[in-house]
């Protein structure tokens, strides 16, 4: 068993940070924080992976803030840039900065798509120490000279795997190129096996330390993974209604794979009498704030979200995650289910599994190293009982029978091929009213005929 990490009060962090940690009730660093803090404080580039909800945000914020407090700013430009894939994650990072820097004069600003560009430019002109941004919007500001990264000391690429999956690879390259060459680069990813992450690390990090603590595929040990067999969408809808009625929960998060399905399901839940909200990329910034505030305050108990919008959500007392549509990949499943069971609390993750979802469930089980518990709802048992045969991998065994392959000679053995005669085929397709065709060969023309179907020329009679 690994030795327990020292208390924050026993570390060399700045006293104002210790005061903020104490005010937030944080006494001891998490595993990722205990390992990352000394490496980042030593000025090392870092390539790190940790499970969602493990405290990785504070793992890079604490040493960043500590250096800013202990070392005067050499210039007036931004000292830290944190690049994240979504607005929701940017908001979460901003909340952490606000809490940890509450006893300091360090300023930050949030630069994401969907907000007024000119207002953001005015924030950047105030030269905040830290910028939290999404890739596309910070590229726009760099292109219009709203800001520059010449004085940057820290560049953090948070959830880099998700950024690359969303097509931000080129933008990440532009951001790195625009940054101060002497910066310290910290890359955090859900998994270090992502080929794009490996490529980015090799290209942009300088002799990085690799840190893989509480690998995300292990998931949270305090999350119960369950699945419910379903026949079709209608059956899932009835099961969802009964599940929400029968279970006791403070807040529930339901995932779908499309925005249209999220909207439709929210309407259905409202029809069933549930206070439900929806969260996806089509909503404006104000709408997102409104929905999330209502969800956090308990005015809305059920939130229907897509994977992209749900990335980075951190909501207290979220006890139940339901995968109405099964996650498309094991990575997505881990991030979905990781919205619950945070900060040592218990959580439940329930998947609705149709015949088409079985193999995907098996992949998620192997990825997380856990066997999902099968549950059922009385009166709503599915006709689908799972595959008849299961492979050692957990996937459904194929049902196709193998056909014998035979050679051409084997096929012809014992079968005498019938002889085809021209006289047997000459009248095929010929209308009966024309009578039988002549047995004469088609190219045998009458004397004087050109064989073109016309009557032969008449020879003049000799007088």
TrEMBL record:
Position of sequence motif Q motif: 6-34
One Pfam match: Helicase_C
Residue spans of biased composition, Basic residues class: 398-409
Region annotation Disordered: where it falls in the sequence: 386-463
Keywords for this protein: ATP-binding, Helicase, Hydrolase, Nucleotide-binding
Sample GO molecular function, one term: ATP binding
Gene3D superfamilies per UniProt: P-loop containing nucleotide triphosphate hydrolases (3.40.50.300)
UniProt feature, compositional bias: Basic and acidic residues: 410-427
Helicase ATP-binding domain: residues covered: 37-193
Stretches assigned to the DEAD-box RNA helicase Q domain: 6-34
Domain of life: Bacteria
Residues annotated as domain Helicase C-terminal: 239-388
GO cellular component, one term: cytosol
CDD domains: DEADc, SF2_C_DEAD
PROSITE patterns: DEAD_ATP_HELICASE, HELICASE_ATP_BIND_1, HELICASE_CTER, Q_MOTIF
Classification via InterPro entries: DEAD/DEAH_box_helicase_dom, DEAD/DEAH_RhlB, DEAD_box_RNA_helicase, Helicase_ATP-bd, Helicase_C-like, P-loop_NTPase, RNA-helicase_DEAD-box_CS, RNA_helicase_DEAD_Q_motif
Family of the protein in this entry: Belongs to the DEAD box helicase family.
PANTHER family on file: ATP-DEPENDENT RNA HELICASE RHLE-RELATED, ATP-DEPENDENT RNA HELICASE SRMB
Protein name in the entry: ATP-dependent RNA helicase
Organism: Marinibactrum halimedae
Source taxonomy: Bacteria, Pseudomonadati, Pseudomonadota, Gammaproteobacteria, Cellvibrionales
């Amino acid at each position: 068993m690994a030795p327990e990490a020292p208390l924050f009060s026993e570390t060399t962090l700045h006293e104002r940070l210790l005061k903020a940690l104490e005010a937030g009730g944080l006494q001891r660093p998490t595993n990722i924080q205990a390992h990352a803090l000394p490496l980042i404080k030593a000025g090392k580039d870092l390539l790190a992976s940790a499970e969602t909800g493990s405290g990785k945000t504070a793992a890079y914020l604490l040493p960043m803030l500590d250096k800013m407090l202990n070392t005067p700013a050499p210039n007036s430009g931004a000292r830290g840039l944190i690049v994240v894939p979504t607005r929701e994650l940017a908001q979460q990072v901003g909340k952490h900065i606000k809490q940890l820097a509450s006893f300091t004069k360090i300023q930050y600003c949030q630069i994401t798509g969907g907000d007024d560009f000119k207002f953001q430019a005015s924030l950047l002109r105030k030269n905040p120490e830290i910028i939290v941004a999404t890739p596309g919007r910070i590229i726009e500001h760099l292109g219009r000279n709203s800001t520059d990264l010449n004085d940057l000391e820290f560049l953090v690429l948070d959830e880099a795997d998700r950024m690359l999956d969303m097509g931000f690879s080129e933008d990440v390259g532009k951001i790195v190129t625009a940054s101060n060459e002497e910066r310290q680069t910290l890359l955090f990813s859900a998994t270090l096996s992502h080929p794009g992450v490996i490529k980015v690390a090799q290209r942009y990090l300088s002799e990085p330390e690799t840190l893989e603590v509480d690998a995300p595929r292990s998931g949270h040990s305090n999350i119960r993974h369950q699945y419910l067999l379903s026949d079709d969408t209608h059956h899932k809808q009835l099961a969802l209604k009964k599940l929400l009625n029968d279970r006791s929960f403070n807040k529930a998060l339901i995932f779908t794979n499309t925005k249209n399905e999220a909207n439709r399901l929210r309407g259905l839940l409202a029809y069933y009498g549930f206070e439900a909200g929806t969260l996806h990329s089509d909503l404006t910034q104000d709408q997102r704030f409104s929905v999330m505030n209502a969800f956090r305050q308990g005015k809305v108990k059920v939130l229907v979200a897509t994977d992209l919008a749900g990335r980075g959500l951190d909501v207290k007392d979220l006890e139940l995650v339901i995968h109405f549509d099964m996650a498309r990949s094991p990575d997505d499943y881990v991030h979905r289910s990781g919205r619950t069971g945070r900060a040592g609390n218990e959580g439940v993750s329930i998947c609705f599994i149709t015949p088409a979802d079985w193999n995907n469930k098996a992949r998620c089980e192997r990825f997380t190293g856990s066997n999902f518990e099968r549950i059922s709802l009385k009166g709503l048992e599915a006709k689908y009982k799972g595959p008849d045969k299961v492979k050692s991998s957990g996937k459904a065994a194929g049902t196709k029978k193998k056909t014998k392959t035979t050679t051409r000679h084997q096929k012809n053995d014992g079968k005498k091929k019938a002889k085809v005669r021209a006289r047997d085929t000459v009248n095929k397709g010929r209308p009966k009213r024309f009578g039988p065709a002549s047995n004469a060969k088609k190219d045998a023309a009458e004397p004087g005929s050109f064989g073109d179907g016309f009557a032969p020329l008449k020879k003049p009679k000799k007088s």
